[in-house]
Design goal:
With 467 residues, the chain is α/β, with parallel strands linked by helices. Helix content is 42%, strand content 20%. Helix 2 packs antiparallel against helix 4, helix 3 crosses helix 4 and helix 3 packs antiparallel against helix 6.
């Protein structure tokens, strides 16, 4: 049995496991199929990772960091292959897919350097003693990752786990299993056997993995429904859970900003990667003073995004049906469709950039994560109203505020119940930040130095000399 776990165990040979069949969402052509791991194979993967844990955790942090640099080098050698496969499986624009692989490479190198610096703290005790803390790895970490940026998200979590001395069982998304298999092969070749084990499968596979008593920690990026099920399963096993789940991110547009600039920012947030980003703009609150000019500019932006077919399709027709259902429900409930909102003819899973006006908080498109290129707009009479409505939501991932007022910016930062607030830029942020999602968007630090803390247990040491 290899670290990539391709073959069935003896007891599984007579089982007929299903396969994941993938269609290119741009053309409708078959990409191929990947076999779903059996329950026995999932259990074996945890055993393999657990058996590799003592030797791996005995490596020094510097040695583990050097191994991550080797991972980064291996990813560089296969970056175009990974990007092309991602492009075919998920429809992600090729340049964006390549950017995701390169982000993974940069993250691996950054974590390789952070790992040896992940130190404990000196504590103040009696002058005759030494008190300090040390960070210890948790054990086997189950990493379950999504399809919308499959290489960058997976490598970020896996790198943090292995540099702190853990071993990993990774289950990639069932929507891009070929990317997951290739990434697993690259990682397995660059690391000692059993440090990272990849298993392919669907929700049943993930459920078998997250309910395993051999798993010490679960790191999940994906839907809120799946995240909630994982959290419930972990109550029975005692596994530590971090999860970044769905978002319903709002953008708040103040009366004093340029409407055309605000429309461009909103379009970027709502339509980039066809709206398939965890922190995509899902709700738009615009001040009445600039609403008419903003809507006209946003419609023009949407039509420009639709004309640029390089922005890519939705990942599959199932998601397209959900997105279109949100739009239809909103129109039936009184929203005005200003552009888009129709299912195009032809192959693939394309959907036009869509703008809805006259939206209300109770509409499904405002209450639920649409995860598609849809910008539902609600006009508000004041900035305070925008903050109140944006905050009245069960999700708590991120929000964007466009304003020229420092007072309004500070108020939004203080009052919005989300993990990340971005002021005057819909995307962006300095390296080294660590944010915690709230509510139905998850819990725990999912990136940055805080993620290394999540991957470890803290032990307090009190040391005195013997009399």
């Amino acid at each position: 049995m290899t670290a990539h776990l391709m073959a069935a165990t003896e007891s599984d040979r007579f089982e007929q496991p299903d396969a994941l069949s993938i269609t290119d969402p741009r053309t409708g052509e078959s990409v191929g199929s990947v076999r779903i791991a059996t329950a026995h194979e999932v259990a074996d993967a945890v055993v393999v990772a657990g058996a590799s844990f003592p030797a791996w955790t005995a490596q020094s942090p510097a040695e583990r960091g050097a191994a991550l640099h080797a991972v980064a080098d291996a990813l560089v050698a296969r970056e175009e292959e990974l990007a092309e496969l991602n492009h075919r499986e998920t429809g992600k624009p090729l340049a964006d897919a390549l950017g995701g692989v390169r982000a993974a490479i940069a993250t691996a190198r950054q974590v390789a350097e952070l790992g040896p610096l992940h130190a404990g703290r000196a504590l103040r005790g009696p002058s005759t003693a030494v008190d300090f803390t040390v960070a210890e790895p948790r054990g086997v970490v189950a990493v379950i990752t999504p399809w919308n940026d499959p290489v960058a998200v997976a490598v970020g979590l896996i790198a943090a786990a292995v540099v702190t001395g853990n071993t990993v069982v990774h289950k990639p998304s069932e929507r891009c299993p070929h990317v997951g298999e290739l990434l697993g092969s690259v990682l397995a070749d660059a690391l000692p056997p059993g440090v990272v084990v990849t298993i392919s499968g669907d929700g049943r596979t993930g459920a078998a993995l997250t309910s395993s008593v051999g798993v010490a920690m679960i790191a999940h990026v994906g839907s809120s429904a799946t995240g909630a099920r994982i959290a419930r399963a972990a109550v029975l096993t005692g596994a530590h859970v971090i999860r970044e789940n769905g978002g319903n991110d709002a953008i708040l547009i103040d009366a004093d900003v340029d409407p055309a600039w605000a429309a461009a920012q909103t379009a970027l947030g709502a339509f980039a990667n066809a709206g398939q980003i965890c922190t995509s703009v899902e709700r738009v609150f615009v001040h009445a003073d600039i609403a008419e000019r903003f809507l006209a500019a946003l419609v023009a932006e949407a039509e420009r995004w639709t004309a640029d077919t390089a922005s890519g399709p939705l990942v599959d027709r199932e998601l397209r049906g959900i997105v279109h259902g949100h739009v239809v429900d909103a129109v039936e409930d009184g929203a005005r469709l200003l552009t888009g909102g129709t299912v195009p003819e032809g192959p693939g899973a394309f959907y036009p950039a869509t703008v809805l006006a006259d939206c209300r908080p109770g509409m499904r498109v405002m209450r639920e994560e649409t995860f598609g290129p849809v910008a539902p707009v609600m006009v508000v009479g004041s900035f305070d109203e925008a903050v109140r409505l944006a905050g009245a939501d069960p999700y708590g991932l991120a929000a964007t505020v466009l304003t020229g007022s420092m007072d309004h910016a500070h108020r939004a930062v203080a009052d919005l119940p989300v993990g990340t607030v971005k002021v005057n830029a819909v995307f962006g942020g300095a390296p080294g930040g660590s944010a915690e999602p709230r509510g139905e968007s998850g819990s725990g630090f999912g990136y940055g130095p805080g993620l290394l803390d999540e991957m470890t247990l803290t032990k307090v040491v009190h040391l005195e000399a013997a009399p």
